[in-house]
Amino acid sequence: MNLRRDVFQAIADPTRRTILLLVASQSMTAGAIATNFDTARPTISKHLQILTECELLEQKQNGREIHYHTNAKKMKEIADFIEPFRKMWDDRFNKLEDIMKNYKPSK
Hints:
Elements (H helix, E strand, L loop, with lengths): L6 H6 L1 H12 L2 E2 H5 L6 H13 L3 E6 L2 E6 L1 H31 L5
Antiparallel strand pairs: 1-3, 2-3
């Protein structure tokens, strides 16, 4: 049975978000990624598997090593989905800020 992982559940995990930040600027091997954590290598491998299944990371074979890099297209899809919500909350906070600027506490 092939389970499709939910991308938002995947990025809800702080370790997986950190992995995405690590490989955002350069591709890295699993070993190089694992050195940034105080957890067992198999645990990091499981996180990499989840991120790969969600298509947030892609793998590229380079000799005997597998390098992980972000899938920019998938990341953009997520950003595009989140953008209307970000705008909505920005507008709400800006309105609240305006109200608070004009608020004068009674003595």
